[in-house]
Every structure is written in structure tokens, then in C-alpha cells.
Amino acid sequence: MRIAPVVAIGTLATLLPALTPAAASAADPRPRTAAAAGTGAPAADALRRYTRQKPHWNRCGGETPAELECATIEVPLDYARPGGRTLSVAVSRTKATSARDRRGVLLLNPGGPGGSGLDMPVWMAPMLPDDVKKRYDLVGFDPRGVGRSSPVGCGLNDDEREWQRPYKAATFGKDVRWAQTVAAKCRARNGAVLPHLTTRNTARDMDVIRAVLGERKISYLGYSYGTYLGAVYTQMFPRRADRFVLDSAVDPERIWRGMIQVWAEGAEPAFTRWATWTAARDETYGLGRTPAEVRATFWALVARADREPIVLDGTALTGDDIRAGRAVFFDVAYAAEAIVRLKEAAAGRTPASPRQSGRPAPVPPSFAPVGTTASASLGASLGTSADAVPPDNMDAAFWSVVCADTRAWPRDPERYRRDAIRDKARYPLYGDFASHIKPCAFWGDGSEPATRVNNSVGALILQNEWDSQTPLVSGQGLRRAMKGARMVTVLGGQGHGVYGMQSCADATATAYLVTGRLPARDAVCRTPAAENGHAQRLPLPAPQGLPDGKARF
Q1: Is 86 helix (H, G, I), strand (E, B) or coil?
Q2: What are phi and psi of 331, to 5 degrees?
Q3: Is 506 known to be catalytic?
């Protein structure tokens, strides 16, 4: 899907109400106990320990810039019982470049769930205009359960971390056992913690960060999953939300099974668009003179790889491996080059590099075998010990949030079988992957029901037309839920992430962060770079389990 000057702590009278869910919003589901609502003196006293924290800022690590400082704060594991067990949340900051122009803090989130945001101020800084950096302290954090923030792990091996599983009748029982095993391992290692690793609680943690920094409000820039986190914050704490930019948006009505299924829905029009684009360039790619011929070439390669794996760059790929790479089709030039190389490998020829062949040179094609894992180095640049963060932390954090956020996951394995069969017919590229069984079928309930996002808080939603992880329909869903927001759609925009990528939407986002003025109405624009078929890409965190960021929102 990575931070400002020391700010005096505000008065408890102004800080405490924002931390109590009862003060958040009339639409917000109430906690289960009176203590959780902050209505009694014991709960208020317990919450004061968090608002009174004075973080000790230190350099984040030997390899980080000197201006990036880190601190650790405490938050309740369970906000319904704030006097009980606590978790550590790691926070980082860089100062606004102008004390005179400083407005406040801009909290950052890269997405996930499971993405570390602690170093986000460093890698975002070059992409943010000076007018933004002089007005805001850039504040990053690792959400609860991630990276340096009381990280969770389940002890999963490489096979257990791979969740892109195509439906096959012969392996269905094995896949059910896999889902049961992942859930059981996570429960065994983190049982008491799992129900509280939710987006709602991370939003509450954000409000603790706001209070500790002495701010009455926060501004926010969230990508991908971070858009849902930001939307939940606006629902729970509408009076504390200042200027919120939500980039590449999650539809709150689809969390979370529906957001995985929308990958399959969105892949089909992207595949059709790619076939049309590629057919118009048959002299370059040689994959077919018509869209039908291009599609036939692709499916012939899938069938060939199902009979006998195609060895590409030393890696044997099955037809399922090729289908699992559905995200490539959202970048038409990238996909065309990938399929050309696959076709050459299938014919027994060593695929020529793009420059040798004279074809355009996109980012390297990334098909990989289902089951391949990538070893992420969470916190490595911040000096975090390799032993401090479990190797499966991103996977564990992902499932923890996705499974605990909502109680809508079906519990009957046969439901997943039926849906996978149905959706493979509907969406041949990825439908069975998306609807197949997941560990959430065997997960326990989270501590609270899902948040219904339905408010009039002002925010700016940015959305590429061709986004593989949060397709356009997803961004439109968030816009429907946030009636006070405005949405800028980048027509022809490819890739996951808009702001900071030299997009036509950048000026609108910058103006909003600087002045607070939203566009009068929803808008569309077209980025010239989109005309050549290449996507821009933000350096969002690459997940474990899949290459090139395909596993996360």
C-alpha cells in the first residue's frame, strides 16, 4: 500500500472528548460497555494516561536522514477497557520547513493492511510540493500489529503465506485445510490480540497520536487501504478531521471480501482494453491484428502452460500463474511486453529484452509462480532488528484486519466453492482466485461490527481510471459514502496511486492541502503520460507472498 516540530500537549479538556467513541459521531456504533464510551470517571482517568504521554523523540536509525525522528507511544489494546493491556505504536516525524507558515500535521498511510508507514515521510518528501512541506509536519506511523508497533506474526511457512489459490475440485479440500491452518496458527500466537487489530482501533490510535502531538485536528494523506482508514476516522471523529486526501480508494460497502472480488471484476474490462490497444500495435507486438486474435493468443498461452509449464527467465509458469498476474493488464504497454516475452519463451526462444527487440521498454514484466514469497525487510532502513519483526508480519497483519473488520465473511466452505465456480465463469482471468476460500472463513469475530461510512465530512478522493488494486468502481463507492467529499478521476490514468506521480490531479490536491478549498464539484482530468500506455507507480510497500504489490489494497 513511509515525519514535525515538538508540539506542546494540549489541555485534557480539549483532548479527551476526541478519544472517547461516544463523542465521535451519532452515526458511530457504540462500544459495548459504559466504560468504553468514556461516560464514567474510571474510563476518563484511564484515557488520560494516553493523552498525557510525552514522547521521547530520537533518530530513527543509523541509515535514516537526521531530520527523521521516531518515538513510541502507548495505546489501549481494547478501547472498551482502557485500563487494561496496552500496545506500542511507533510514530515518526519531520518538521514543517517553515515555522511561520506551519498549519499542523499531515498524517500519512501507505496502504495495506499491513503496510509500514514509519519511513513514509522520507520517501514521500520528494514527491510533495514545497508549499505542502512548509505547512505540515509529515507524520508517519506503523499501525498496530505492523512493523515496530507491537508486530504480530503467525509462524506461517512460505506455502501458508501464499493465498492466491485457484479453485480446482481436486485441491479444494487442501485449500480448506490451508485456510483453517492459517487461522489456527494466528489464533494460537495472537489469540487475545486478534479481535482488536481492526481499522476502527487504528483510527482511534490515530486520534491518540493527534492528542499526543497537541493538535486539535489532523490532516491526512492515505493511499489504497489508507483511504478506508481515513474514511473510518472521518466517521468516528468528524470534528477532528481537517484536510483529508484519499488516494486510490476502497469502497467501504465492499470490505473486505468484496474488495478482493472487485479485482476479478475490474480485470475483465482492463483485459479487453489491453487487447484492443495491443491489436492496434500489431506491427510492434505481433500478438494479433484484432482484439479477438490478441485474446486468443493469450488464452492459448494459458492452455499451453497448463499442459506444460512455460519457463521464463528460469521460472516455470503454469496457466494459473499467468492468470494470477491479472494486474499487468491495467498497464497496457507493460502487459503487451510481458505476453510477448511469454510467447517467445513458449516457442523455446530466449526472450529478447525490450531494447534489443526495439519494442517500448516498460517496467519488467512480473509473472511469478503461485506460492512464491518475497522477503520484505520491514523497518530495515530504520535500524529495526530482523528478529524484531516476524517474517510473516505483513501477512499476519493483513489477515488480522481483513478478517476482524467485518463479520460478513461466509463460514461455510461450500459457499466459497460455489462462488469460485460461478466467478471463474463470469471473470475467467481471476474470478476463482478472488472468490475462493480465505482464512477469514475460520477467523473469530472482531471486537466490533464494521463501520458504516456515511457522512458529509469534506475530503478529496483521487482515482485513476485504470487501477488494478482499487478499480474505478471502488473509488466511486467511497464517493457515494462521503457526501461532503469531491472526487477527481484521472481519465486514462494507469497504476495504483495518483498524488505525487506527476498526475493532472496533483495541482488540485496541492491546492486543497494548502488552502483547504475543495473543487466546487467532482472533476475529471487526463494525464498526458497516460497516452503512451505506461503507468506511473508510487513506491507503495511490496507485500510478502506476491511480487510487485499485487497482494494488498
Answers
A1: strand
A2: -120, 100
A3: no
Q: Give the bridge partners for 482, in sequence order.
A: 455
* β 486-494/523-526 pair status: parallel
Q: What is the pLDDT of residue 534?
A: 53
Residue type, 234: T
Q: 111 with 1: CB under 8 angstroms?
A: yes
Report in angstroms the alpha-carbon separations of 110 from 80, 230, 242, 470, 505. Answer: 28, 11, 19, 14, 18
C-alpha cell of 317? Answer: 509458469
Residue 467 is among the residues annotated as catalytic for this protein: yes
Q: Which of 251, 381, 392, 496 is catalytic?
A: 496
- Strand spans (E) along 206-309: 218-223, 241-247
Q: How confident is the model over 355-365, as pLDDT tens digits?
A: 556 665 544 44
Amino acid at 253: E
Closest to 485 measured CA to CA, from 452, 455, 509, 513: 455
* DSSP strand pairing (86-94 vs 58-59): unpaired
Check if the beta carbon of residue 288 is closer than 8 Å to that of residue 296: yes
Which alpha helices (H) appear in 347-471, and where do they start and end?
354-357, 393-404, 413-426, 431-435
For 35-70, give one letter per residue: b (16+ CB within 10 A) or e.
bbbbeeeebbebbeebbebebeeeebbeebeeebbb
Q: Quote the pTM value.
A: 0.88
Q: In what order do the strands lie in the sheet with 136-141?
A: 58-59, 69-76, 86-94, 136-141, 104-109, 218-223, 241-247, 460-466, 486-494, 523-526
- 3-state secondary structure (DSSP) of residue 284: helix
Confidence of residue 374 (pLDDT cuts 50, 70, 90): very low
Distance CA 172, CA 438 (A): 12
Q: Rounded to whole angstroms, how far apart are CA atoms 228 and 135?
A: 25
Q: Is 496 a catalytic residue?
A: yes
CA 193 to chain CA centroid, nearest Å: 21
Selecting among 25, 149, 224, 248, the annotated active-site residue is: 224
Residue carrying the nine cell digits 503512451: 532
Cβ-in-10-Å burial (0-12, 13-18, 19+) of 213 comes to buried
Where do we find the cell 488516494? Answer: 247
Beta-bridge partner residues of 140: 92
Spatial contact of 147 and 118, defined as CB atoms under 8 Å apart: yes
* HSE-up of residue 164 (Cα within 13 Å, Cβ side): 27
User: Sorting pLDDT into bands at 50, 70 and 90, what band is 117?
Assistant: very high
Query: Given 247, 467, 506, 548, which residue is catalytic?
Result: 467
CB atoms within 10 A of CB 385: 8
